[in-house]
Design a protein that fits this description.
Elongation Factor Tu (Ef-tu), domain 3; Threonyl-tRNA Synthetase, Chain A, domain 2; six-stranded mixed β-sheet; binds zinc ion
Length: 397
């Protein structure tokens, strides 16, 4: 079985004959006498495309050395097939994979950081380095890798016996036995690899490190090559431009601007709370003055406009500082907020009143016998006020 991509990664059309076709998970497993389809292996995902117009759903590398194409429909053994490989996906993988060889070699040569593993995902690729690297070391490796890209060096593919390969200065000990496929980025990197690569490094376009994190004893480096790097550039450009329109500062000043805004917002919040408390003590006097006398005390049940939860609480606390007061305050907005409180000389369980309101009108909340608060009450204001008057009037003593 011939793997056409071994010698020509740029070939997307080919003809072949069906060797076998068997039922398999997800469809039919088709083996051909030759194929341009790359099977999932070595950290690189499979190629997509068609065989006789039938979509190739998966491509597997079997232990016996054959490549299995998984199709929705069966093909007949002996049948001639026209194969077509999706070039957009293939070329993207060629850019990421060759970029990985160069970036790994740069980390190795400059910093002695070996690549332990490589993963090529749908969004980005990662390499796991054997030791932790600093941001400056990452930048130096990135610079060196892009120098190799821009020098447009040839990428040679050759085959070597195990003995020949043993004499070569390969970057990594080969995992396979027997003859090896050697990928050489001219005068820079020599690796045993079965993947698809560009013919000259210029085809990678650019190698951009898009993030990194500590991983095991080393660093996981996330990178994007070629079109993916351009896609990331646009993503960051657009996100940054949207923030810039709001903040009106240059990108490098953005973090400081956000820090300043957060500080101002906290200070404003503190000012508002202080003013609310001052206002609450004034308003509370008016509330007590217009409350309904009951027994020796005063019952206040009102809906108020323009107070948030903290404000209502401050108001109820201030009102219930007056002996004999029991108070239930609602926000005018729906769903309503509510605070129930009572003076220390009043026998009323504010928590129980709140619980009864929540069970009647929904929402949630809780508290203690002297003060309880809640929100999310869904009912017309008149119904809320009437229920609260009944609950307080019926339970106060
Ligand atoms: Zn490779």
């Amino acid at each position: 079985m011939t793997r056409l991509y071994y010698t020509d990664a740029y070939r997307t059309d080919f003809t072949a004959h069906v060797v076998s076709c068997e039922p398999a998970d997800g469809g039919h497993a088709v083996v051909l006498d030759q194929t341009a389809f790359y099977p999932t292996s070595g950290g690189q995902p499979f190629d997509t495309g068609t065989l006789n117009g039938i979509a190739v759903r998966d491509v597997l590398d079997r232990d016996d050395g054959t490549v299995v194409h998984v199709l929705a429909k069966a093909l007949t053994p002996g049948e001639a097939v026209e194969g077509w490989v999706d070039w957009g996906r293939r070329f993207d993988h060629m850019q990421q994979h060759t970029g990985q060889h160069i970036l790994s070699a740069a980390f190795d040569r400059l910093h002695g950081a070996r690549t332990e593993s490589f993963h090529l995902g749908a969004e980005h690729a990662t390499i796991d380095l054997s030791r932790e690297v600093s941001p400056a070391e990452i930048a130096a490796a990135e610079d060196d890798a892009n120098r190799i890209v821009w020098e447009d060096r040839p990428v040679h593919v050759r085959f070597a016996s195990a003995e020949e390969a043993a004499a070569m200065p390969l970057r990594k000990e080969p995992a396979r036995q027997g003859p090896l496929r050697i990928i050489e980025v001219e005068d820079f990197d020599l690796s045993a690899c079965g993947g698809t690569h560009v013919a000259r490094t210029g085809g990678i376009g650019i190698i951009g490190v898009s993030g990194w994190e500590k991983f095991r004893a080393g660093t996981r480096v996330e990178f994007r090559c070629g079109r993916r790097a351009l896609g990331r550039f646009r993503y960051w450009r657009d996100a940054l431009a949207a923030s810039q329109r709001l903040l009106s500062v240059a990108p490098h000043e953005m973090a400081d601007a956000i820090d300043r805004l957060q500080g101002e917002s906290k200070a404003a919040g503190r000012t508002i709370r202080r003013l609310q408390e001052q206002l609450a003590s004034h308003e509370a006097k008016a509330l007590v003055a217009r409350g309904t006398p009951l027994g020796g005390g005063v019952v206040i049940v009102e809906a108020l406009d323009g107070w948030d939860a903290a404000g209502l609480k401050a108001l109820a606390s201030a009102a219930s500082a007056t002996p004999g007061v029991a108070v239930a305050l609602f926000s005018a907005a729906r769903p309503a907020l509510v605070v129930v409180a009572r003076a220390s000389d009043v026998s009323l369980d504010a928590g129980a009143v709140l619980k009864a309101l929540v069970s009647a009108f929904g929402g949630r909340g809780g508290g203690k016998p002297d003060l309880a608060q809640g929100g999310g009450l869904e009912a017309p204001m008149e119904a809320l006020l009437a229920e609260a008057r009944g609950l307080i009037g019926g339970n106060i003593s």
